[in-house]
Design goal:
Elements (H helix, E strand, L loop, with lengths): L1 E6 L4 H5 L12 H13 L7 E4 L3 H14 L3 E3 L16 H7 L1 H9 L12 H18 L4 E6 L1 H12 L16 E5 L1
Parallel strand pairs: 1-4, 2-3, 2-4
Antiparallel strand pairs: 1-5
Length: about 180
């Protein structure tokens, strides 16, 4: 299976450098433009299916691509962004200032701890692994285009390349950039 992974188009939270996590926010005007440009770029690339996160920003990006090429689109919930709990909607500085004890605690063990109400990296890793397993079972012979989120893309890269939780942070996928993997 070939899987092409992209991050959704830009949102106002991206511009403001806020934790979006599971907050269901839309693309901004630039994000819509980016998604349209991505659809144009993909015009000569064949896919069998578009998979998207259930969150609005990813679904909007996927729908723009779907409307451009007519490839079937389905939602897989395991590819929703990590839940950042009480950090959602905050900038890094706001989170550090408003929750200094949690910020300090998470700095030493983020894979097994999370902001109050959020997912740990380990829980999130398992959720994304379940999504990848679904793809392998249901789309093993397909060329898959996955529209997801920054941390989802990071964890997919971690899993495919066998990286540690510590080493996975070197990988970043910008809005509407694409990376290809063969599973």
């Amino acid at each position: 299976m070939d899987i092409y992974v992209t991050r959704h188009g830009e949102t106002d939270y991206n511009v403001q450098k806020r934790y979006a996590g599971s907050t269901d926010i839309p693309l901004n005007d630039n994000g819509i433009y980016q998604a349209r440009e991505l659809a144009n770029k993909l015009a000569s690339t064949e896919f069998d299916i578009i998979i998207t996160s259930p969150l609005l920003r990813a679904k909007q990006t996927a729908e723009i691509i779907h409307n451009s090429n007519g490839v079937p689109m389905i939602v897989i919930h395991e590819f929703a962004e990590i839940n950042m709990g009480i950090y959602e909607g905050l900038t890094r500085d706001e989170a550090r200032t408003q929750y200094p004890d949690i910020w300090a605690r998470l700095g030493s063990r983020p894979s097994d701890d999370a902001p109050t109400g959020g997912e740990t990296h380990r829980q999130f890793d398992a959720r994304v692994a379940n999504g990848i397993a679904k793809l392998k079972v249901n789309h093993s012979e397909n060329r898959v285009f996955l529209v997801c989120h920054a941390f989802v893309a990071r964890v997919i890269n971690k899993q495919i390349k066998g990286l540690s939780f510590e080493d996975m942070h070197a990988f970043t996928l910008d809005n509407c950039d694409i990376v290809k993997y063969t599973l």
